[in-house]
Amino acid sequence: MPSRSFMRSPAMWEDEVAYRRTLLRIILWVIALLAFALSLSNLHHDVKTVSILESCITLYCLLFLLRVQRTSHLHWWTSGLMLTVGGVIIYGMYSKGLYTDGFYWLLLMPPVNMLLLGLLLGGVFTFCFGVLGVSVMLWAQPALDGSLDVALLINASVSYLFLWGMSHIFEYKRVQMVRQLREIAARDPLTGLHNRLHLENIFGQIAVSHTAANTPFTLLLLDIDHFKHINDENGHEAGDLILCQLSQRMTVHTRASDWLFRVGGEEFCILLPKTHKADAIELAERLRTDIEKLAPTFHKHPIHFTVSIGLAQWPLDGQDFDALYRQADMRLYEAKRRGATRSLPVCIKLK
């Protein structure tokens, strides 16, 4: 079973942010054009205050469009947009400048909040706008005798809650599906380890955090010796068994904060955050020795196998991914040339 660290997905928030930015560009243009048209219409009908506020929405949207691709404060800008639009709608209902039309516009808030702000913040905004909107509408449109219009309260509340519920379910399912797709894309289906696709991504994140902390980390490359011979002699099922056994032992010997990858057919990589050379050497030696003692049984016949290991420390052996990986790879194949049983003293030799 994978350890805790292998149940995490790589942090790739860029994908989610890119999705929000694309969605925002479309919605901002729609809101800007609608607000401008409504501003002209209200100005024509001499509803000047609401017209000015709608003009402000248009200007905010245009300014946001200029910043949407570059800003690192996307949530703040989006929150400001929703507060501005929602505030104008509620003010229009309060001043009776929008009459009953205001509530129709308010019904757009649940889906837009969920799409742009996510489940938590979008839910908070939706709740606040819903309570304020329904309360203002009931105050502005009492029953004929001046009392609370219970039928209006029920209809408005049920309509708003229904849209909120549907929007919440849609966004929840979308987030869940994206998470599952990311997990599938990030994992090697046989071993359950992360695959080569995300190695550079994780390396970049670790390098940034370790640069800020001024601490080293280590990259290990492992390769099963004579793996083709194992497959030829015992079949590919035996080879798959060996790969799974190796991934399990790697999991046992590493920490929850470490990252494990299957980067090729029989080649694996381990990223060890906040790990100095000496500690990485000890871990590699324990792992190599443990694997050497393994003898998984396939069709009642034990299969012995060994691994060669190459080690490189950041930033001593390279400051970027290609340089560090190349150095570890060179030491890995130097170890293979010397023989699997003597691989570790060679692979950990640092210049």
UniProtKB/TrEMBL annotation:
Q: Boundaries of each GGDEF domain copy?
A: 215-348
Q: What EC number(s) are associated with this protein in UniProt?
A: 2.7.7.65
Which reactions does this protein catalyse? 2 GTP = 3',3'-c-di-GMP + 2 diphosphate
Its keywords, alphabetically, are: Membrane, Transmembrane, Transmembrane helix
**What is the top EC class of this enzyme, as a single word?**
transferase
Which InterPro entries would you find in this protein's record? Diguanylate_Cyclase, GGDEF_dom, MASE6, Nucleotide_cyclase, Rev_trsase/Diguanyl_cyclase
The residue ranges crossing the membrane are: 22-43, 49-67, 74-94, 114-138, 150-170
Q: Does the keyword Transmembrane apply?
A: yes
Q: Which protein are we looking at?
A: diguanylate cyclase
Q: What is the lineage of its organism?
A: Bacteria, Pseudomonadati, Pseudomonadota, Gammaproteobacteria, Alteromonadales
